[in-house]
């Protein structure tokens, strides 16, 4: 049995809230708060997540820990903290690469930590990516030309945001911006957040606050069905003729 009931009761009272006031703040009926606090029901995933956010806790802490005056969080919540990620594995217990297509990007903001949502995403594997946790994201827009809409970025999960490498490209998942593929101009800064750059210079750089960021993935490869156009440069014959011409001119100069 989980510890949701005593934890809700303790945390609500610690904030000086009645069941009705807490219900109003969360957006549910007061009778549900009573049911949750008396072991008669348990909140579903979305509501549990909302309650955990309200009390500045993880869902695991709210459901599993027994929170009282002596309780302390197991990890410090800052930019270097380890983050928990939902993944899927194949029949050999090896991690898949889940694909987040454009049409699923909005739902990903709510379901990125939900194992059931992640399980429904398309998934595949590539021999090149064996060690680490990888996810694929379909690009939208032209802010990172020459990579255009429809390009798929394969990226590796960044557990510690202080490991960010300045000037490299990342997929950043945030509450305000959604899923964006950008170049990062600085390491995680608790005061300012992250500075985001587009390779297409018509898009100005901007800042994302750390509290707004949900996930960060470092780009490792990309897949595209658009092949590069042939370049209209000199052919091998052209280069050979140029070399012969230069040799002739050098020979003429020596004779003079």
TrEMBL record:
Pfam families: HTH_3 (PF01381). Keywords: DNA-binding, Transcription, Transcription regulation. The lineage of its organism: Bacteria, Pseudomonadati, Bacteroidota, Sphingobacteriia, Sphingobacteriales. It comes from the Bacteria. Residues 8-62 form the HTH cro/C1-type domain. The keyword DNA-binding applies. The keyword Transcription regulation applies. GO terms for molecular function: DNA binding. PROSITE patterns: HTH_CROC1 (PS50943). This is Helix-turn-helix protein.
């Amino acid at each position: 049995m989980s510890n949701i009931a005593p934890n809700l009761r303790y945390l609500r009272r610690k904030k000086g809230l009645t069941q009705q006031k807490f219900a109003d703040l969360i957006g549910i009926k007061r009778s549900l708060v009573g049911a949750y606090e008396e072991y008669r029901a348990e909140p579903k995933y979305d509501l549990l997540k909302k309650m955990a956010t309200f009390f500045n806790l993880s869902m695991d802490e709210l459901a599993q820990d027994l929170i009282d005056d002596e309780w302390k969080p197991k990890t410090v919540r800052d930019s270097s903290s380890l983050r928990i990620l939902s993944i899927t594995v194949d029949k050999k217990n090896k991690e898949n690469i889940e694909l987040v297509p454009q049409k699923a990007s909005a739902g990903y903001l709510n379901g990125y930590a939900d194992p059931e949502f992640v399980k429904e995403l398309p998934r595949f594997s590539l021999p090149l990516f064996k060690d680490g946790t990888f996810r694929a994201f379909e690009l939208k827009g032209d802010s990172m030309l020459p990579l255009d809409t429809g390009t798929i970025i394969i990226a590796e999960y960044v557990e510690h945001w202080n490991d960010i490498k300045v000037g490299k490209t990342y997929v950043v998942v945030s509450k305000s911006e959604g899923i964006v593929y950008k170049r990062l101009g600085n390491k995680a800064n608790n005061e300012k957040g992250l500075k985001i750059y587009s390779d297409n210079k018509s898009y100005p750089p901007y800042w994302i606050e750390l509290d707004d960021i949900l996930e960060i993935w470092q780009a490792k490869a990309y897949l595209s069905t658009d092949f590069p156009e042939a370049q209209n440069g000199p052919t091998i014959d052209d280069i050979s003729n140029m070399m012969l011409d230069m040799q002739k001119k050098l020979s003429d100069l020596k004779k003079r």
